[in-house]
Amino acid sequence: MTDLTTSEAERPAMQKPVIDVSGVDLTFQTNDGPIHALKDVNLEINKGDFVSFIGPSGCGKTTLLRCIAGLETPTGGTLTVNGLSPNEARKARSYGYVFQAAGLYPWRTIGGNVKLPLEIMGFSKEEQIRRVRKVLELVDLEGFEKKYPWQLSGGMQQRASIARALAFDADILLMDEPFGALDEIVRDHLNEQVLKLWARTEKTIAFVTHSIPEAVYLSTKIVVMSPRPGRITDIIESPLPKERPLDIRDSAEFIEIAHRVRDGLRAGHEG
Amino acid sequence: MTDLTTSEAERPAMQKPVIDVSGVDLTFQTNDGPIHALKDVNLEINKGDFVSFIGPSGCGKTTLLRCIAGLETPTGGTLTVNGLSPNEARKARSYGYVFQAAGLYPWRTIGGNVKLPLEIMGFSKEEQIRRVRKVLELVDLEGFEKKYPWQLSGGMQQRASIARALAFDADILLMDEPFGALDEIVRDHLNEQVLKLWARTEKTIAFVTHSIPEAVYLSTKIVVMSPRPGRITDIIESPLPKERPLDIRDSAEFIEIAHRVRDGLRAGHEG
Amino acid sequence: MNRSDTQFERIAYPVGFGLLVLLLWEISVRVFGISPALLPAPSAIGAAIAGSVPILWGDWVQTVIKGAMNGLWMGGIAGVALALVIDRFAFLKQGLMPVANFFAALPIVGLAPIMVMWFGFDWHSKAAVVAIMVFFPMLVNTLGGLAATDSMQRDLMRTYSAGHIATLLKLRIPAALPFVFNGLKIATSLALIGAIVAEYFGSPIRGMGFRITTEMGRLATDMVWAEIFISALTGTALYGLVALIEKRVTFWHPSQRG
Amino acid sequence: MKLRQSAFPILTVIAALLVVWYGATIKMNSTWTYDQAARAGTEPSFSEVVSDTMQQSRPLLPAPHQVVSELWKTTVEKKITSKRSLVYQGIITLKTTLWGFTLGIFIGVSLAAIIVLSRVGRLSLMPWAIISQTIPIVALAPMIVILSNAAGAGTLLVPKAIIAAYLSFFPVMVSMVKGLSSPDHMQLDLLRTYGARPNAVFWKLRVPASMPYFFASLKVSVAAAFVGAVVGELSTSAIAGLGARMLIGSQFGEPMIMWAALFAAAILAGLLIFTVGGVEKILRRAMGGRAV
Amino acid sequence: ADDVTLQLKWVTQAQFAGYYVALEKGLYEAEDLNVTIKPGGPDVAPVQVLLGGGADVMVDWMPSALAARENGAPVVNIAQPYKSSGMMLTCLKESGVTSPEDFAGSTLGVWFYGNEYPFLSWMSKLGIATDGSEGGVNVLKQGFNVDPLLQKQAACISTMTYNEYWQVIDAGISPDELVTFKYEDQGVATLEDGLYVLEDSLTDDAFKDKMARFVKASMAGWTWAAENPEEAAEIVLEYDETGAQTEKHQIRMMGEVAKLIEGSTGALDIADYDRTVASLLSGGSDPVITKTPEGAYTTEITDMMMK
Lengths: 271, 271, 258, 292, 307
Ligand SMILES: Nc1ncnc2c1ncn2[C@@H]1O[C@H](COP(=O)(O)OP(=O)(O)OP(=O)(O)O)[C@@H](O)[C@H]1O
Ligand SMILES: Nc1ncnc2c1ncn2[C@@H]1O[C@H](COP(=O)(O)OP(=O)(O)OP(=O)(O)O)[C@@H](O)[C@H]1O
Ligand SMILES: Cc1ncc(C[n+]2csc(CCO)c2C)c(N)n1
Ligand SMILES: [Mg+2]
Ligand SMILES: [Mg+2]
Known about the structure:
The complex is a heteropentamer, with 2 copies of chain A, 1 copy of chain C, 1 copy of chain D and 1 copy of chain E. By secondary structure, chain A is α/β, with parallel strands linked by helices. Chain A has helices at 4-8, 61-68, 86-91, 110-120, 125-138, 154-166, 184-201, 212-218, 252-270, and strands at residues 19-30, 33-45, 50-54, 76-81, 95-98, 172-176, 204-208, 221-226, 231-237. In chain A, helix 4 (110-120) packs across helix 5 and helix 4 (110-120) packs parallel to helix 6. Chain C is mainly alpha-helical. Chain C has helices at 7-31, 42-51, 53-88, 90-104, 112-119, 123-146, 151-159, 164-198, 208-217, 221-249, 254-257, and one strand spanning 203-204. Classes of the chains: A alpha/beta, C mainly alpha, D mainly alpha, E alpha/beta. Chain C: It is a multi-pass membrane protein. Chain C: Residues 76-250 form the ABC transmembrane type-1 domain.
């Protein structure tokens, strides 16, 4: 896999991976000594993929997402996004990032928060208004535009932060446990919404979760990770069709994949 | 059910419920107007019961637990614990309460945190040391006694907080989403531990969770709740045996109960 | 403890406490026959205030409006501006902050005679003292505030690839405002004290500091306390005003939501 | 730790400041030079002017080397026991500061405890604590001297320490009010489930939870105590200490004495803050805090 | 020994040399007194210290003592070591002020803290307004030094013959560039540096006896100081806790102070007293004192002392 970058040029343009992680290593230097957060991570994500990352706490899921977004610089290996470096891709505004916590700015209304990236990227006033309305509708927050974050429940805040990431139509969505604090019913609902959006827009999505059913339900590719050092232990391609009603979760195929993920996870815990 | 309190005296002593909630109502007065957090809640919990509470966010699970612990005073109805008022029971130190977040005191070591209730309740020095050692072993935290909370992972912190609640051998354990932030593998492990402890000690346990499998796996009784106003919509007695290996979750019985719970939950969301 | 305080209680209690102190003060002055040259009775202070409104007004204008206010806006703007500059250049931050901290440790009152020497005895030297006194709390608080964003908030801006100015305007300045107001609260009380102290080292024949020293020499302590009263009233009003604006501007901050 | 890293920027900034300072020295002191020349009827050359501005005995702004040499003369070249030594004077100020600081901590913590534990205390004391800080302490200074004199305090240390405490209790109080009320509902509820008494809540929860706030306030508070000590010496009775030296320097037309005392004060304040910061770090570590 | 606490009007300097000499040379001890000398400061009004019980006797200027008396602080002069006034107004020639007629419209530095009374009564005698109105003088509250003159912020400033005047000279301005108006020469001199006690305490015979011994020893100290200015200055320097005073300045101050002491036995000269009172009463619209003071002095102590 290390010569992947050289062979790349020969492939047809369409199949070139959007995100190409190859031999990535990342060590944090801390007072207590170095922490090996990522070790020899290799991964290809193609256009339109929905990739889930799953693994125990501290296995480097967030770190890997941050590397992809150019928020962290790997200490080894190469990482390209659309052939660019993550930093360049970031400057080209390719990313919509949903953080582990909602992280709305408390001095802005919900509408203002969603508008924030649009202001920075210089969209016109009318366009800003139009898009804010559209994405708030998408996450079921019509009518809350003028409210402040603390006036909303945790789940609503998380939806607002998703709307914020969707507002400017980035090609790549990076979502870090976006539904962590929600109950199962709301979660199911949002899972459906995300799937719909993904099916419609052909975005590339990288998605971190702790929930095995969620990972299996959403993804075309499931990446199982393991800590100390953080590394990929399994990559599972999902055979599930793109169209996924909620009750697909009771199908034998689904349960089988879920089992494989669980086994992978358990192995990581023991290892 | 409303005449339950009168008929109580006639029953044999053994069957008298440990926790007897009858017609409990609770309304919070807020700036935005009153919030009806609990409405006509009726529930009996017998000695040795393992009761799970499940329901969407804001349906009053935490509030009900707090009422039982005497941390909140119902605005209507009666609630007795071992025949006493919750406040008296609290002063009699009947409760071990595990909060939604670990809530360890950061200025105390793990050992110090577990020792805290023992100090307050005036156990002797040797007894304190003995018990701290015992419960830390129980939650697999031997050797971490001298560490500070921030030196432990989230899961370890939550286990420490469980140890703290177990240290003084309260009859009644109240656990509010104790495993909320843990990944599935760790969660499974802790579920097994709790079940073991329960089987051995005959404690009465009230347990809040968002996870349907967890509720079904652990409980003798599942209470499904629904919001606005917070109320009980279903109480499901589990036919599962007390001995529960992890793979009981693939049994038909298990899946059936899980379905019933999910339906109850969904109804609550729609209602 | 759970009961939140009503508006009425929040006013009635401190006022009641104040009145109680005044009452005890008045009684003890009378009962123990304390010489008015040492400690005047509150009633005498009240009489002095009522009887010298024009003088007190003139002093107030000289010290508060000309000295303190001018110094306050000059020092405030300078502090915030330098904070923005220092914040922009890591080099300056590393180099200037230790030096600034050294100067901030100066007991600024010691500068008052120097400022009088440099800027003359009228209000200019007072404003200079005030400006220096106000400068450091504003600088330090603004810098602290600009650094007060959490890393996720900053990372969000980075994912948008926002520039320095955009990050400043949309994230860091709003996030810094609670700190700036905190600095401003400290600054207002310092401003009054600075303006008054500076008058001790030379002044025209009006001003609150001037009056306090001269009337003290004349043993007219009722007048001294009248000025002290006016000064405390002004300081409290300024503090209240800043707190009010703060409430309006940083309504979103948890501390303002109660 | 990062001192080596930031040594270069610090030195650069200091160098730039020195250049500005020397420039200002020439500019500000030259007026006097020209005036004197005019009185003497001579016309000095530029270099004469520059050299004169560097060595006036009553400069508007002394040159840096003048300040340094004065500092050197009054610290290193004088016995510590000599009244002319700034070290001797500094120790007097330091003593006042430490008494005031101690008293301030005591008052601040006590008031905070009353405010946090009692509703009436909170409602009536807090606003007055704020108001107390808007009263110009210099105006009260003489009264404090006279009243403590009347109350039988033999030395000036008492009134000076009171003034220092008056300024230093406030930061401690504000922080401690925050700190003692920092435990969240859950932390409080935990103790309630144990049926803990208010006493236990205070000592086992509120007090330890307030420690970081307490430490954070110490640096501010010691600086305030120091300012109070200097103000006390400057205004109550110019007998001894750095504040008194500033005053005498100013009164007797010896600006160099004033400047040297001023810089000595800044250095001493810096040392105090540094020391308190160090003690804070040690205590924090001893209490199991994160090494930051 | 009897305890006596003396409150000075200002900081330790040769202005008060007689007391320090008496202390250092054991003259107080010889009178069976245990004397404590408390220096003053910018903010401390000696009268207040007296009232507060912090001192038994104080050094003060008669104008402020009389003003205090009228304001309800019953102080009484018991002795007057200073015969003449050392106060003057010092002007820069280049400012154009050469005679009192030139004052109008110019800025004059004045000490306050109770030291402004001689100036105010002089101005009202000259008929010059001091409230900043048209045709009057512009009064500046002078700080503790002579900077306003050097920085040309004022045309004239208040100086003492024994102190500030020499600071101006030391700063490099020669005497012929200055014009001085001594209050003595202008006929508006008021009595400086007398010893005052509270009226009540004079009802106690033991206290009176104590004071008589105190004044006696103090005057002996003054006599010695006037004869040995250099040693006296040394003694003063030793008592200066700030260590900031200079020898040169204090020796010169002692020399000048000796001139003001000359001719005083310690006893108050009633003629001087009357002149001071008249001057203070003549303050036009805003006199320093409004009625002739009663019992503001007693010669009893000095009489006892002379015996
Ligand atoms: N800035 C940092 N400095 C030092 N170590 C870090 C830093 N960020 C992360 N780490 C370490 O890197 C490892 C991976 O962290 P990461 O946040 O990527 O885990 P994660 O898989 O997202 O876990 P979780 O599920 O708890 O969010 C952890 O051991 C963590 O302690
Ligand atoms: N102290 C309070 N004051 C006012 N309203 C409250 C208070 N505590 C809870 N509530 C309200 O009561 C309702 C029930 O809250 P509760 O915390 O019991 O929900 P929950 O079922 O535990 O939810 P979650 O699953 O999110 O923890 C909510 O609507 C909540 O807003
Ligand atoms: C507070 C105060 N300030 C100034 C003077 C003026 N003054 C009168 S005598 C004297 C000593 C000789 O210089 C001085 C300075 C004072 N008395 N008290
Ligand atoms: Mg993470
Ligand atoms: Mg809850």
